[in-house]
Amino acid sequence: MAIRLIRIKNVMAFGAKKIGDKELPFELAFCPGINVIIGENGTGKTSLLKMIYVATQWSTKQDHPEKDIDLRNYFSTTLESGDSLSNYNTQNERSNFEIFDGNNSVTISFSCGQIASALRSYHFKMESVFIPATEMLSHSKGFLALNQKFNMPFDATQVDIIANASLPEAREIPSYMHEIMKKISKAINGEVIQENDVFYVVKEDGRKVNFSLEAEGLRKLGLLWKLIRNGLLEPGTVLLWDEPEANLNPELFPLVAEILLELQKNGIQIFVATHSYNFAKYLEIRRTETEQVQFHNLYHSEQPGVIEASSAYRMEDLHFNHIMMADNKLLDEIYDL
Questions:
Q1: What is the per-residue pLDDT across 218-231, written as a single tens digit (0 to 9) for each?
Q2: How far apart are CA 336 and CA 95, in angstroms?
């Protein structure tokens, strides 16, 4: 099972496109492998990932077919009661987003506000893990307890990643996961443990280093190691990773690409949002089959408040590919010098 399509109407950046008297929602089809989301700032890359996360999390946690959801928990904890997640072009219409696996769906719908109702097909159930761009494990001490008692300025993706990393380690993990963990351990020179709400990297020489003292790029790899060790990335799981390249030494891009391709090969569907041409290109050149990795470029339409997308299996075939334009502009300037 994999997510095949998302449909969005009048949510945040994703306004409905008007053609004559018709309003067409934003639609984007995905591959069952690795989906790489690129685009300028403000085109909704992170929002797209969060919509998928909201729908998948709701699909696995709710016992009833209908349930209200406070979207502030996922998109912004600082929204006031009068603020709306609806697109600014919306005029008294309901906003919604839906994800489909081919046969079943989850629909999240709301009207000019933040409290949404949800409806799913009976058979839709999909586990997911979201890795936010903000590194969170270095803030773990007492975090979950404080978050339950106070209104902390963190969204659900940031809270959930600490909760997931804090789960007990799985009794057994597959052999291919052991190989992935070995590669990560080599990069971070150790393994990740948690003691009294604090994460540490136990180095190969026995030193125990507080997670907050590690380089942030290595913390990202350490987090991935812990998620695997806790058994959260199983076949059929969806992994959503926002800006995996942020604060990561470019020398590690090939390693992360290799790990993601190995996870995909073993039944995990992956969505990554990135601003890095080099990171995205590594996924393209390291894949063994074209269909393993699909690229999706989000860009502003000529109509205000509307986002459009182009998809391709090669970076060069995308329309309005701004990260490639920026890379080419740099090469032109170097050539001119």
A1: 999 999 999 999 99
A2: 49
